[in-house]
Amino acid sequence: MTTSQASSRTTTEGTVYTVTGGDWDEVVESAAKADDERIIVNMGPQHPSTHGVLRLILEIDGETVQEARCGIGYLHTGIEKNLEFRSWTQGTTFVTRMDYLTPFFNEAAYCLGVEKLLGIEDQIPDRATVLRVLLMELNRISSHLVCVATGGMELGATTIMIYGFRDRELVLDLFEMITGLRMNHAFIRPGGLAQDLPPGAVDRIREFITTMRKNLPEYDKLATGNPIFKARMQDVGYLDLAGCMALGATGPVLRSAGLPHDLRRTDPYCGYETYDFEVPTADTCDAYGRFLIRLEEMRQSLRIVEQCLDRLEPGPVMVADKKIAWPAQLALGPDGLGNSLDHIRNIMGTSMEALIHHFKLVTEGFRVPPGQTYTALESPKGELGVHVVSDGGTRPFRVHFRDPSFTNLQAMAAMCEGGQVADVIVAVASIDPVMGGVDR
Amino acid sequence: MSDEQNTNSGQVPAPVDRSGEVIGVRKGMFGANNGGDTSGYGGLVRTVTLPGATSRPYGGWFDEVADELEGALEEQDLLPSEAIEKTVVDRGELTFHIAREHLPRVARTLRDDPALRFELCTGVSGVHYLGDKGRELHAVYHLRSLTHGRLIRLEVSTPDSDPHIPSLVEVYPTNDWHERETYDFFGLVFDGHPALTRIMMPDDWQGFPQRKDYPLGGIAVEYKGAQIPAPDQRRSYS
Asked: Coiled-coil stretches, from where to where (chain A) (predicted)?
């Protein structure tokens, strides 16, 4: 820019400067004189291929991305702050809405943390733990399906999008039957589950496994060997192992760099050490490798779901301690699902203690001994960690979610800079960020 | 009263109570603090105590990590007792409370020492202990070692009057966004961070929303004829 200082004149009061706005003509002139074609492009926050409300700020020179930055926070809803004003059990209703594609993982991570603070990990009934694993693995399938589907759509491969959402719908139907809701279930509670499986659920899940085993090869046929798909994905969004470690990337991004790090294996929870499954890896460090890993993980999840069904045994799904177990005795009445009339008859007519427990738990909640804990589990996106602090009250003192989407999204710049604009979309899709989890 | 100690100095008090660290006092039972509590529990006073320092042996691999860390710090001519304020083992988790000026050195040692090798930092979480006078703001780091399959916690505290902690971005680049988030919500200033700006809240936001003295906000809503107060105005159980 030319030197455009404000004009000044000297008066008896001192120097007076006349300040006016910049001259637009001068800006245009200097931009025309500059020989580079650097422009800054705002992609999003409302753009179908940026996964919700992600804003990408790209400095591009022709078709090459020189610098890439993320603008996030458009979906910040203050969930962590809100948790501090609800009881421990009510917390599940909030956390399930964070990463809305992986509700069961959020709930499970939170509940495992609360249970660890309470010191009741050993008292969680086996059936509840097995069902948690089952729900989480079904959830892994639905989350990966959305990733594959939207990733395909962003490449222009609409068929794979239709297929992905078709199959995800099957999983959501199962969720709806089991929990009553397609998303945002609040089904996993501190101490166990809200409810047992409804009748017929096991058969429906087995049917689903059969259907899914038939449908999964379709993705291979459509995409895995497809030369256009490969050309768009291979060597795009490159991040090697050193980059992953420095940037804290976990999940499929880390495994695509060849390290078989999966918390289900390296730091097992919910009895994962007793299940038989593989941790797929790739050594390509690129978007294509991550795609293949997600496909394989869906197959492995089906295996785990099958093993869960085999080891399901009748029993309670909530901890026996009446001072913690939420008195959710739901039954289908004439006006829909609600408190069971038997339970109401019991607390109102027969058992004074049951009434007291019900009243205390619903109004006050339970107290959690002071302390802090960090629990982590392997969500479809990577390490989902929860730092829970209690001050001994009926409400969480502080809950912090280390969301894998948030951390992995930092790698966007490293993956995109120096590449093509069109590859930014592929790279971001291969990270699979969900803004509900990023912004919380 | 133990919660009033060291109110005037910005110094970090040495934890004296071996049985635990008092961070506040709870009075009454039903959250009524303006004389309306006729339940008979109004006179109830309980101190809130976090788990205090643990003495050796810590058990399991905890001793090994502590030994290695202390040894590695000694090699760098840094007295372990100066850097590590206390060590807490609670609920099967190992926590080192680190003096804030030594945090980068300790983190680098934890990352690089072959016997420690905590390669992965899972970010930082802020906690605001309003009642912990002189050390209100805590930054909590969880470090994971993929080599050894271990997880430890580092905790650093600062007073509200001087909320500065050295940044760990140089050691763990992943902490870039995490430190921005903690700054955004708690006002903890990470010295040496390359661009410490707000990340979630709008750039011109006033205040730090997740501090305990920052209200949640909200409005009363009508439900079946009754006014339901905003969540932070509702009855809480103390």
From this structure: none
